[in-house]
Design goal:
- Residues 53-425 form the Aminotransferase class V domain.
- Belongs to the class-V pyridoxal-phosphate-dependent aminotransferase family. Csd subfamily.
- This is Aminotransferase class V-fold PLP-dependent enzyme.
- This protein has helices at residues 4-15, 64-73, 86-105, 120-128, 175-188, 209-218, 238-241, 266-271, 306-320, 326-343, 373-384, 396-401, 419-435, 466-473; strands at 40-42, 48-50, 52-53, 112-117, 137-140, 166-169, 193-197, 222-226, 245-249, 260-265, 282-286, 289-292, 348-350, 363-368, 386-387, 389-391, 408-412, 441-444, 447-450.
- It is an alpha/beta fold.
- Helix 10 (326-343) packs parallel to helix 13 (419-435).
Protein backbone atom coordinates (compact mmCIF):
# COMPACT_ATOMS: atom_id res chain seq x y z
CA UNK A 1 0.00 0.00 0.00
CA UNK A 2 1.23 3.48 -0.80
CA UNK A 3 1.80 5.35 2.43
CA UNK A 4 -0.13 8.41 3.54
CA UNK A 5 3.14 10.35 3.31
CA UNK A 6 3.43 9.43 -0.36
CA UNK A 7 -0.18 10.43 -0.83
CA UNK A 8 0.53 13.92 0.38
CA UNK A 9 3.59 14.02 -1.86
CA UNK A 10 1.21 13.33 -4.74
CA UNK A 11 -1.05 16.09 -3.46
CA UNK A 12 1.93 18.43 -3.35
CA UNK A 13 2.52 17.84 -7.06
CA UNK A 14 -1.02 18.98 -7.72
CA UNK A 15 -1.14 21.92 -5.33
CA UNK A 16 2.49 23.02 -5.53
CA UNK A 17 2.59 23.34 -1.75
CA UNK A 18 4.38 21.42 0.98
CA UNK A 19 1.95 19.42 3.07
CA UNK A 20 2.78 17.46 6.19
CA UNK A 21 1.31 14.01 6.47
CA UNK A 22 -0.98 13.62 9.49
CA UNK A 23 0.06 11.32 12.28
CA UNK A 24 -1.23 7.79 11.87
CA UNK A 25 -4.58 7.72 13.70
CA UNK A 26 -6.77 4.96 14.93
CA UNK A 27 -8.68 3.16 12.21
CA UNK A 28 -5.85 1.04 10.83
CA UNK A 29 -8.02 -2.03 11.43
CA UNK A 30 -11.79 -2.60 11.28
CA UNK A 31 -13.62 -1.97 14.52
CA UNK A 32 -15.93 -4.96 13.93
CA UNK A 33 -15.85 -7.72 11.30
CA UNK A 34 -18.33 -7.25 8.47
CA UNK A 35 -19.47 -9.63 5.78
CA UNK A 36 -17.75 -9.14 2.43
CA UNK A 37 -14.70 -7.32 3.78
CA UNK A 38 -12.41 -9.40 1.57
CA UNK A 39 -14.54 -9.25 -1.58
CA UNK A 40 -12.49 -8.40 -4.69
CA UNK A 41 -13.82 -6.51 -7.69
CA UNK A 42 -12.43 -6.28 -11.24
CA UNK A 43 -10.79 -3.09 -12.51
CA UNK A 44 -10.70 -1.84 -16.07
CA UNK A 45 -6.96 -2.50 -16.37
CA UNK A 46 -7.58 -6.23 -16.01
CA UNK A 47 -6.51 -6.48 -12.38
CA UNK A 48 -8.69 -6.77 -9.29
CA UNK A 49 -8.65 -5.21 -5.82
CA UNK A 50 -10.35 -5.69 -2.51
CA UNK A 51 -13.45 -3.51 -2.54
CA UNK A 52 -13.22 -0.32 -0.49
CA UNK A 53 -16.77 0.37 0.63
CA UNK A 54 -17.03 4.08 1.39
CA UNK A 55 -20.79 4.19 0.89
CA UNK A 56 -21.88 3.05 4.35
CA UNK A 57 -24.26 6.00 4.73
CA UNK A 58 -26.44 4.51 1.99
CA UNK A 59 -26.37 0.87 3.12
CA UNK A 60 -23.86 -0.60 5.53
CA UNK A 61 -22.59 -4.18 5.16
CA UNK A 62 -23.89 -6.81 7.55
CA UNK A 63 -21.98 -7.50 10.71
CA UNK A 64 -20.65 -11.04 10.83
CA UNK A 65 -22.45 -11.37 14.16
CA UNK A 66 -25.72 -10.54 12.44
CA UNK A 67 -25.44 -13.16 9.72
CA UNK A 68 -24.34 -15.74 12.31
CA UNK A 69 -27.46 -14.94 14.34
CA UNK A 70 -29.71 -15.29 11.29
CA UNK A 71 -28.15 -18.67 10.47
CA UNK A 72 -28.81 -19.74 14.05
CA UNK A 73 -32.49 -18.82 14.15
CA UNK A 74 -33.53 -19.55 10.56
CA UNK A 75 -34.35 -23.22 11.32
CA UNK A 76 -36.70 -21.95 14.06
CA UNK A 77 -38.61 -19.57 11.79
CA UNK A 78 -42.40 -19.96 11.81
CA UNK A 79 -45.58 -17.90 11.99
CA UNK A 80 -45.72 -15.19 14.65
CA UNK A 81 -48.27 -14.16 17.32
CA UNK A 82 -51.15 -16.36 16.22
CA UNK A 83 -49.61 -19.82 16.03
CA UNK A 84 -50.05 -22.53 18.67
CA UNK A 85 -47.16 -24.62 17.36
CA UNK A 86 -43.93 -24.79 19.31
CA UNK A 87 -41.86 -23.03 16.62
CA UNK A 88 -44.51 -20.34 16.30
CA UNK A 89 -44.12 -19.67 20.00
CA UNK A 90 -40.34 -19.63 19.63
CA UNK A 91 -40.52 -17.18 16.71
CA UNK A 92 -42.95 -14.96 18.60
CA UNK A 93 -40.61 -14.89 21.60
CA UNK A 94 -37.62 -14.06 19.38
CA UNK A 95 -39.56 -11.27 17.67
CA UNK A 96 -40.74 -9.65 20.90
CA UNK A 97 -37.33 -10.04 22.53
CA UNK A 98 -35.83 -8.32 19.50
CA UNK A 99 -38.25 -5.43 19.96
CA UNK A 100 -37.00 -5.06 23.53
CA UNK A 101 -33.36 -5.04 22.38
CA UNK A 102 -34.05 -2.36 19.77
CA UNK A 103 -35.82 -0.19 22.35
CA UNK A 104 -33.00 -0.70 24.83
CA UNK A 105 -30.39 0.31 22.25
CA UNK A 106 -31.92 3.76 21.85
CA UNK A 107 -32.52 4.28 25.56
CA UNK A 108 -36.29 3.95 25.48
CA UNK A 109 -38.20 5.08 28.56
CA UNK A 110 -40.40 2.54 30.40
CA UNK A 111 -43.58 3.83 28.78
CA UNK A 112 -42.15 4.17 25.25
CA UNK A 113 -43.15 1.79 22.47
CA UNK A 114 -41.03 0.32 19.65
CA UNK A 115 -42.73 -0.31 16.34
CA UNK A 116 -40.86 -2.52 13.88
CA UNK A 117 -40.96 -0.95 10.41
CA UNK A 118 -39.12 -1.37 7.12
CA UNK A 119 -36.73 1.57 7.46
CA UNK A 120 -36.45 5.22 8.52
CA UNK A 121 -38.68 6.42 5.68
CA UNK A 122 -41.37 3.95 6.72
CA UNK A 123 -41.06 5.03 10.35
CA UNK A 124 -41.39 8.73 9.63
CA UNK A 125 -44.37 8.22 7.33
CA UNK A 126 -45.98 6.22 10.12
CA UNK A 127 -45.30 9.00 12.62
CA UNK A 128 -46.71 11.59 10.22
CA UNK A 129 -49.99 9.69 10.27
CA UNK A 130 -50.41 9.78 14.06
CA UNK A 131 -49.70 13.44 14.81
CA UNK A 132 -53.00 14.71 16.24
CA UNK A 133 -55.33 16.30 13.71
CA UNK A 134 -54.56 19.96 13.19
CA UNK A 135 -51.18 19.65 14.87
CA UNK A 136 -48.60 21.85 13.17
CA UNK A 137 -45.19 20.42 12.28
CA UNK A 138 -41.90 22.31 11.98
CA UNK A 139 -39.04 20.94 9.88
CA UNK A 140 -35.73 22.32 8.61
CA UNK A 141 -34.63 22.41 4.99
CA UNK A 142 -31.48 20.43 5.92
CA UNK A 143 -33.47 17.20 5.90
CA UNK A 144 -33.25 14.02 3.87
CA UNK A 145 -36.44 13.62 1.85
CA UNK A 146 -37.54 10.90 4.28
CA UNK A 147 -37.91 13.59 6.95
CA UNK A 148 -39.21 16.28 4.62
CA UNK A 149 -41.79 14.85 2.24
CA UNK A 150 -44.00 13.07 4.83
CA UNK A 151 -44.62 16.40 6.56
CA UNK A 152 -45.40 18.49 3.49
CA UNK A 153 -49.13 18.72 2.96
CA UNK A 154 -49.89 18.39 -0.74
CA UNK A 155 -53.04 18.01 -2.75
CA UNK A 156 -53.95 14.35 -2.96
CA UNK A 157 -50.98 13.37 -0.78
CA UNK A 158 -50.98 10.79 1.97
CA UNK A 159 -51.92 13.32 4.64
CA UNK A 160 -54.12 15.69 2.64
CA UNK A 161 -57.24 16.62 4.57
CA UNK A 162 -55.67 16.16 8.01
CA UNK A 163 -55.59 19.88 8.61
CA UNK A 164 -51.88 19.63 9.30
CA UNK A 165 -49.68 22.53 8.30
CA UNK A 166 -45.97 21.87 7.85
CA UNK A 167 -43.56 24.80 8.04
CA UNK A 168 -40.13 24.40 6.46
CA UNK A 169 -37.65 26.65 8.25
CA UNK A 170 -34.64 27.79 6.18
CA UNK A 171 -31.15 27.22 7.56
CA UNK A 172 -29.22 30.07 9.07
CA UNK A 173 -25.45 30.58 8.51
CA UNK A 174 -24.45 29.22 11.93
CA UNK A 175 -25.66 26.70 14.48
CA UNK A 176 -26.26 29.51 16.96
CA UNK A 177 -28.34 31.51 14.48
CA UNK A 178 -30.32 28.40 13.48
CA UNK A 179 -31.17 27.69 17.12
CA UNK A 180 -32.30 31.30 17.49
CA UNK A 181 -34.51 30.93 14.41
CA UNK A 182 -36.03 27.74 15.82
CA UNK A 183 -36.75 29.48 19.12
CA UNK A 184 -38.38 32.42 17.36
CA UNK A 185 -40.55 30.24 15.12
CA UNK A 186 -41.68 28.01 17.97
CA UNK A 187 -42.65 31.13 19.92
CA UNK A 188 -44.53 32.58 16.95
CA UNK A 189 -47.24 29.91 16.89
CA UNK A 190 -48.01 26.59 18.58
CA UNK A 191 -46.44 23.45 17.08
CA UNK A 192 -47.20 19.85 17.92
CA UNK A 193 -43.90 18.52 16.61
CA UNK A 194 -40.42 19.62 15.60
CA UNK A 195 -38.71 16.97 13.49
CA UNK A 196 -35.06 17.10 12.47
CA UNK A 197 -32.07 15.01 11.51
CA UNK A 198 -29.79 13.60 14.17
CA UNK A 199 -26.89 13.78 11.70
CA UNK A 200 -26.98 15.03 8.12
CA UNK A 201 -26.70 12.34 5.46
CA UNK A 202 -24.76 14.90 3.40
CA UNK A 203 -22.18 16.37 5.79
CA UNK A 204 -22.58 14.42 9.02
CA UNK A 205 -23.36 17.62 10.91
CA UNK A 206 -26.24 18.22 13.29
CA UNK A 207 -27.73 20.70 15.69
CA UNK A 208 -27.07 19.98 19.39
CA UNK A 209 -30.03 17.82 20.40
CA UNK A 210 -29.98 18.88 24.05
CA UNK A 211 -30.45 22.51 23.04
CA UNK A 212 -33.09 21.65 20.45
CA UNK A 213 -35.11 19.59 22.93
CA UNK A 214 -34.88 22.33 25.55
CA UNK A 215 -36.16 24.94 23.09
CA UNK A 216 -38.94 22.76 21.68
CA UNK A 217 -40.25 21.44 24.99
CA UNK A 218 -40.30 24.95 26.44
CA UNK A 219 -42.65 25.87 23.59
CA UNK A 220 -44.84 22.80 24.09
CA UNK A 221 -43.64 20.89 21.00
CA UNK A 222 -42.45 17.31 20.84
CA UNK A 223 -39.22 16.39 19.06
CA UNK A 224 -38.72 13.60 16.52
CA UNK A 225 -35.26 12.67 15.27
CA UNK A 226 -34.34 11.07 11.96
CA UNK A 227 -31.68 8.81 13.43
CA UNK A 228 -30.66 7.03 10.23
CA UNK A 229 -27.12 8.45 10.35
CA UNK A 230 -26.97 9.13 14.09
CA UNK A 231 -27.99 5.86 15.73
CA UNK A 232 -25.43 3.57 14.01
CA UNK A 233 -22.56 5.98 14.65
CA UNK A 234 -23.11 7.50 18.08
CA UNK A 235 -24.55 6.45 21.37
CA UNK A 236 -28.12 7.75 21.58
CA UNK A 237 -30.72 7.65 24.32
CA UNK A 238 -34.32 8.84 24.24
CA UNK A 239 -34.36 9.01 28.02
CA UNK A 240 -31.11 10.95 28.34
CA UNK A 241 -31.75 13.35 25.46
CA UNK A 242 -35.43 13.99 26.10
CA UNK A 243 -36.21 13.34 22.42
CA UNK A 244 -39.77 12.07 22.01
CA UNK A 245 -39.37 9.86 18.92
CA UNK A 246 -36.47 8.37 16.99
CA UNK A 247 -36.55 6.54 13.66
CA UNK A 248 -33.72 4.47 12.22
CA UNK A 249 -32.94 1.75 9.67
CA UNK A 250 -31.45 -1.71 9.93
CA UNK A 251 -29.76 -1.39 6.56
CA UNK A 252 -27.70 1.52 7.91
CA UNK A 253 -27.11 -0.26 11.23
CA UNK A 254 -25.24 -3.24 9.76
CA UNK A 255 -28.40 -5.38 9.56
CA UNK A 256 -29.56 -5.25 5.92
CA UNK A 257 -32.50 -7.61 6.35
CA UNK A 258 -35.36 -5.19 5.71
CA UNK A 259 -36.27 -3.91 9.18
CA UNK A 260 -36.19 -0.55 10.89
CA UNK A 261 -37.84 0.98 13.94
CA UNK A 262 -39.82 3.89 15.29
CA UNK A 263 -39.40 4.23 19.05
CA UNK A 264 -41.07 6.82 21.26
CA UNK A 265 -44.00 8.05 23.26
CA UNK A 266 -46.97 5.74 23.33
CA UNK A 267 -49.99 8.06 23.40
CA UNK A 268 -49.94 9.21 19.74
CA UNK A 269 -49.10 5.71 18.58
CA UNK A 270 -51.90 4.16 20.64
CA UNK A 271 -54.60 6.48 19.32
CA UNK A 272 -53.40 7.49 15.85
CA UNK A 273 -54.68 6.08 12.58
CA UNK A 274 -53.30 2.55 12.05
CA UNK A 275 -50.48 2.62 9.51
CA UNK A 276 -51.80 -0.43 7.64
CA UNK A 277 -55.23 -2.02 7.80
CA UNK A 278 -55.05 -5.76 8.18
CA UNK A 279 -54.74 -8.82 10.36
CA UNK A 280 -52.81 -8.52 13.59
CA UNK A 281 -53.63 -4.83 14.02
CA UNK A 282 -57.18 -5.48 15.22
CA UNK A 283 -58.97 -6.93 18.24
CA UNK A 284 -62.33 -7.40 16.59
CA UNK A 285 -63.80 -6.82 13.13
CA UNK A 286 -67.49 -6.74 12.27
CA UNK A 287 -69.39 -5.41 9.31
CA UNK A 288 -70.21 -2.17 11.11
CA UNK A 289 -67.10 -1.54 13.20
CA UNK A 290 -63.43 -2.31 13.78
CA UNK A 291 -61.71 -2.35 17.15
CA UNK A 292 -57.98 -1.68 16.75
CA UNK A 293 -55.12 -2.88 18.92
CA UNK A 294 -52.91 -0.38 20.77
CA UNK A 295 -49.34 0.12 19.59
CA UNK A 296 -47.16 -1.57 18.51
CA UNK A 297 -49.55 -4.16 17.01
CA UNK A 298 -51.79 -1.32 15.79
CA UNK A 299 -49.14 -0.39 13.20
CA UNK A 300 -47.77 -3.84 12.33
CA UNK A 301 -50.57 -5.40 10.30
CA UNK A 302 -49.73 -8.55 8.36
CA UNK A 303 -46.97 -11.05 9.04
CA UNK A 304 -44.02 -9.13 10.48
CA UNK A 305 -40.43 -9.32 9.33
CA UNK A 306 -39.25 -11.64 12.08
CA UNK A 307 -35.77 -12.26 10.71
CA UNK A 308 -35.28 -8.56 10.00
CA UNK A 309 -36.19 -7.68 13.58
CA UNK A 310 -33.84 -10.35 14.94
CA UNK A 311 -31.04 -9.09 12.69
CA UNK A 312 -31.57 -5.49 13.81
CA UNK A 313 -31.61 -6.53 17.46
CA UNK A 314 -28.35 -8.44 17.06
CA UNK A 315 -26.71 -5.43 15.39
CA UNK A 316 -27.91 -3.22 18.23
CA UNK A 317 -26.56 -5.60 20.87
CA UNK A 318 -23.21 -5.95 19.06
CA UNK A 319 -22.72 -2.19 18.77
CA UNK A 320 -23.81 -1.68 22.37
CA UNK A 321 -21.18 -4.17 23.54
CA UNK A 322 -18.30 -2.10 22.15
CA UNK A 323 -16.10 -0.37 24.75
CA UNK A 324 -17.32 3.09 25.65
CA UNK A 325 -16.15 5.64 23.11
CA UNK A 326 -14.66 3.07 20.72
CA UNK A 327 -17.17 3.68 17.92
CA UNK A 328 -16.77 7.44 18.06
CA UNK A 329 -12.97 7.28 18.23
CA UNK A 330 -12.70 4.91 15.26
CA UNK A 331 -14.99 6.99 13.11
CA UNK A 332 -13.55 10.36 14.09
CA UNK A 333 -10.02 9.19 13.30
CA UNK A 334 -11.09 8.12 9.83
CA UNK A 335 -13.11 11.26 9.20
CA UNK A 336 -10.23 13.49 10.32
CA UNK A 337 -7.85 11.62 8.01
CA UNK A 338 -10.29 11.90 5.12
CA UNK A 339 -11.07 15.60 5.51
CA UNK A 340 -7.40 16.54 5.94
CA UNK A 341 -6.49 14.65 2.79
CA UNK A 342 -9.33 16.15 0.76
CA UNK A 343 -8.48 19.69 1.84
CA UNK A 344 -4.87 19.14 0.74
CA UNK A 345 -5.99 18.56 -2.86
CA UNK A 346 -6.27 21.65 -5.01
CA UNK A 347 -9.76 22.10 -6.42
CA UNK A 348 -11.47 19.78 -3.94
CA UNK A 349 -14.08 21.49 -1.77
CA UNK A 350 -15.52 19.81 1.31
CA UNK A 351 -19.16 20.73 1.96
CA UNK A 352 -20.13 22.14 5.34
CA UNK A 353 -23.43 23.48 6.61
CA UNK A 354 -22.27 25.47 9.64
CA UNK A 355 -18.78 26.66 10.62
CA UNK A 356 -19.60 26.23 14.32
CA UNK A 357 -20.94 22.67 14.20
CA UNK A 358 -19.14 20.05 16.29
CA UNK A 359 -18.76 16.26 16.41
CA UNK A 360 -19.96 15.31 12.92
CA UNK A 361 -20.40 11.63 12.08
CA UNK A 362 -18.33 9.94 9.37
CA UNK A 363 -20.13 11.33 6.33
CA UNK A 364 -18.15 13.67 4.08
CA UNK A 365 -19.39 15.27 0.86
CA UNK A 366 -17.15 17.07 -1.60
CA UNK A 367 -16.81 18.36 -5.16
CA UNK A 368 -13.76 17.82 -7.34
CA UNK A 369 -13.12 20.96 -9.37
CA UNK A 370 -15.51 21.16 -12.30
CA UNK A 371 -15.64 17.39 -12.79
CA UNK A 372 -19.08 15.78 -12.91
CA UNK A 373 -19.69 13.89 -9.64
CA UNK A 374 -20.98 10.88 -11.58
CA UNK A 375 -17.75 10.71 -13.55
CA UNK A 376 -15.67 10.91 -10.38
CA UNK A 377 -17.66 8.08 -8.77
CA UNK A 378 -17.44 5.92 -11.91
CA UNK A 379 -13.68 6.51 -12.11
CA UNK A 380 -13.15 5.59 -8.46
CA UNK A 381 -15.06 2.36 -8.97
CA UNK A 382 -13.69 1.26 -12.34
CA UNK A 383 -10.04 2.21 -11.83
CA UNK A 384 -9.57 1.83 -8.05
CA UNK A 385 -12.26 -0.49 -6.69
CA UNK A 386 -13.74 2.19 -4.44
CA UNK A 387 -17.45 2.60 -3.80
CA UNK A 388 -18.76 6.10 -3.08
CA UNK A 389 -22.08 7.84 -3.70
CA UNK A 390 -22.74 10.67 -6.12
CA UNK A 391 -25.80 12.83 -6.74
CA UNK A 392 -27.95 14.92 -4.47
CA UNK A 393 -28.42 12.25 -1.79
CA UNK A 394 -32.20 12.70 -1.44
CA UNK A 395 -31.52 16.10 0.13
CA UNK A 396 -32.13 18.44 -2.80
CA UNK A 397 -32.83 21.64 -0.80
CA UNK A 398 -29.65 21.17 1.23
CA UNK A 399 -27.48 20.54 -1.86
CA UNK A 400 -28.85 23.75 -3.38
CA UNK A 401 -28.03 25.59 -0.14
CA UNK A 402 -24.48 24.20 -0.30
CA UNK A 403 -24.01 25.41 -3.89
CA UNK A 404 -24.06 21.89 -5.34
CA UNK A 405 -27.39 21.74 -7.15
CA UNK A 406 -25.82 19.49 -9.78
CA UNK A 407 -24.68 17.03 -7.16
CA UNK A 408 -21.50 16.07 -5.33
CA UNK A 409 -19.52 13.03 -4.20
CA UNK A 410 -20.03 11.47 -0.77
CA UNK A 411 -17.68 9.18 1.14
CA UNK A 412 -18.91 7.59 4.35
CA UNK A 413 -17.25 5.28 6.84
CA UNK A 414 -18.37 2.59 9.24
CA UNK A 415 -17.17 -0.09 11.62
CA UNK A 416 -15.59 -2.07 8.78
CA UNK A 417 -13.73 0.89 7.28
CA UNK A 418 -9.94 1.10 7.60
CA UNK A 419 -7.33 3.79 7.07
CA UNK A 420 -6.29 1.94 3.91
CA UNK A 421 -9.73 2.58 2.41
CA UNK A 422 -9.44 6.30 3.15
CA UNK A 423 -5.88 6.49 1.84
CA UNK A 424 -6.83 4.69 -1.35
CA UNK A 425 -9.59 7.23 -2.01
CA UNK A 426 -7.23 10.16 -1.44
CA UNK A 427 -4.54 8.66 -3.67
CA UNK A 428 -7.08 7.98 -6.39
CA UNK A 429 -8.35 11.57 -6.31
CA UNK A 430 -4.80 12.94 -6.38
CA UNK A 431 -4.10 10.75 -9.40
CA UNK A 432 -7.29 11.92 -11.10
CA UNK A 433 -6.30 15.55 -10.62
CA UNK A 434 -2.77 14.91 -11.84
CA UNK A 435 -3.32 12.57 -14.83
CA UNK A 436 -7.05 12.42 -15.42
CA UNK A 437 -9.07 9.25 -15.88
CA UNK A 438 -7.27 6.52 -17.80
CA UNK A 439 -10.40 4.83 -19.14
CA UNK A 440 -12.97 6.40 -21.43
CA UNK A 441 -16.38 7.14 -19.92
CA UNK A 442 -19.79 7.95 -21.34
CA UNK A 443 -23.25 8.73 -20.01
CA UNK A 444 -25.84 6.04 -20.73
CA UNK A 445 -29.39 6.80 -19.61
CA UNK A 446 -28.05 9.29 -17.09
CA UNK A 447 -25.44 6.93 -15.65
CA UNK A 448 -21.68 7.31 -16.11
CA UNK A 449 -20.03 4.08 -17.25
CA UNK A 450 -16.89 2.81 -18.94
CA UNK A 451 -17.06 2.74 -22.73
CA UNK A 452 -16.99 -0.87 -23.98
CA UNK A 453 -16.47 -2.14 -20.44
CA UNK A 454 -14.82 -5.58 -20.58
CA UNK A 455 -14.68 -6.30 -16.85
CA UNK A 456 -15.93 -9.80 -16.10
CA UNK A 457 -19.01 -10.21 -13.96
CA UNK A 458 -18.75 -11.84 -10.58
CA UNK A 459 -20.27 -15.28 -10.94
CA UNK A 460 -23.56 -14.77 -9.13
CA UNK A 461 -26.94 -15.62 -10.61
CA UNK A 462 -28.83 -12.56 -11.81
CA UNK A 463 -25.85 -10.48 -12.97
CA UNK A 464 -26.22 -11.19 -16.68
CA UNK A 465 -27.46 -7.66 -17.34
CA UNK A 466 -25.49 -5.74 -14.72
CA UNK A 467 -24.64 -2.75 -16.92
CA UNK A 468 -28.17 -2.34 -18.24
CA UNK A 469 -29.64 -2.63 -14.77
CA UNK A 470 -27.25 -0.05 -13.35
CA UNK A 471 -28.01 2.40 -16.15
CA UNK A 472 -31.74 2.00 -15.67
CA UNK A 473 -31.46 2.57 -11.91
CA UNK A 474 -29.34 5.76 -11.86
CA UNK A 475 -31.10 8.08 -14.27
CA UNK A 476 -31.42 11.78 -13.43
CA UNK A 477 -34.47 11.38 -11.20
CA UNK A 478 -32.93 8.62 -9.05
CA UNK A 479 -30.04 10.46 -7.52
CA UNK A 480 -29.90 9.35 -3.91
Amino acid sequence: MTSITELFACADEVTGTATSAPAAPRGEAPLLPVVGASTTVPLVDGTSRTYANLDCAASAPALEAVTARISEVLPLYASVHRGAGYLSQVSTALYETSREAVARFVGARPDDVAVITRNTTDSLNLLAGVVPAGGAVLVLDVEHHANLLPWVQRSGGAHAGTGRVATILPLEPTVAATLDALRAELARRPYALLTLTGASNVTGEALPLDRVVEIAHAAGARVAVDGAQLVPHRGFSLAASGVDYVAFSGHKTYAPFGAGALVGRRDWLDTGTPYLAGGGAVRDVRADRTVWQPAPARHEAGSPNVLGAIALAQACDTLAALPAGALEAHEQALRTRLVAGLEALDGVRVARIWPDSVDPVGVVTFVVGDLNPGLVAAYLSAEHGIGVRDGRFCAHPLLAHLGASNGAVRASVGVGTTAEHVDRLLLALADLLRRGAQAEYEVVDGCWSVVDDTRPLIEVAGLDHLAATAAAACGPALDD
